[in-house]
Amino acid sequence: MTSDQAGKQYAPFTQLPPLAGLGGTDASAIQLPATPADVKSSVQQEVEPLFQMARKVIEDHDRWISAAQDEEVNRKERQELLRVAAEIPQDTQVTMHFQLPTGSKVTEKMQPTQTSYEIYTKAFQLLQQEREFRIKVEGAEGEHFSKDVNEANFHLSLESLGLKPGCSYTVIVS
Predict the structure, then answer these.
(1) Burial of 117 (0-12, 13-18, 19+ CB in 10 A)
(2) d(CA 64, CA 55)
(3) Which residues lie within the region annotated Disordered (predicted)?
């Protein structure tokens, strides 16, 4: 098809009113490419910015996906840490189960910073009589802990004696 034939083929379209914002639409303003190579280079110039924009969108999306995956990994790590922290006993006190010579039992919570003298004082109060007695602290089930409480260690804190917060111990008063 020659360019003269192409001009006649599109002649009815050249008579249409112009769109708002565009220039005139007379037949002389329309230039058809002379060869397919002209079309290719013209299209390539118009399409290349679109492909660049598409590449940028894909790169941005890949970065977003990567950041979302990293955040998911971090979130799971934080949840695991919270689960572990929830399993740690929150009791900061030492539970003491006093067993008296009469067979009665009394439970007392004490701070790890309190001294062994305070164990002695509590035992004295529970006995309600003035007599000589001995005190031995033993660990909870599964713990091999045994410590005599006497004047030599009255100044030591429960923690210094080896008693741990959140654990229970039996105080045998004899």
Answers:
(1) middle
(2) 14
(3) 1-27
What is the C-alpha separation between 81 and 96, in angstroms, rounded? 31
- Main-chain dihedrals φ then ψ at residue 109, nearest 5 degrees: -100, 135
**Domain ranges for the chain:** 35-88, 94-173
What is the 8-class DSSP label of residue 147? E
Residue keyed to tokens 């112009």 = 18
Work out whether the CA dihedral 151, 157, 160, 163 comes out positive or negative.
positive
What are the structure tokens assigned to 119, written together? 């164990």
Domain 94-173: give its CATH code: 3.10.20.90
For 114-153, what is each residue's pLDDT tens digit? 999 999 999 999 888 777 889 999 986 667 888 999 999 9
Tokens of 47: 């399409």
- At 87, list the tokens: 């399993």
β-partners of residue 106 are 98
Contact 112, 94 (CB under 8 A): yes
In sequence order, the β-bridge partners of residue 96 are 108, 169
Q: pLDDT of 68-85, one tens digit each?
A: 999 999 999 999 988 887
Do 144 and 134 contact (CB within 8 A), yes or no? no
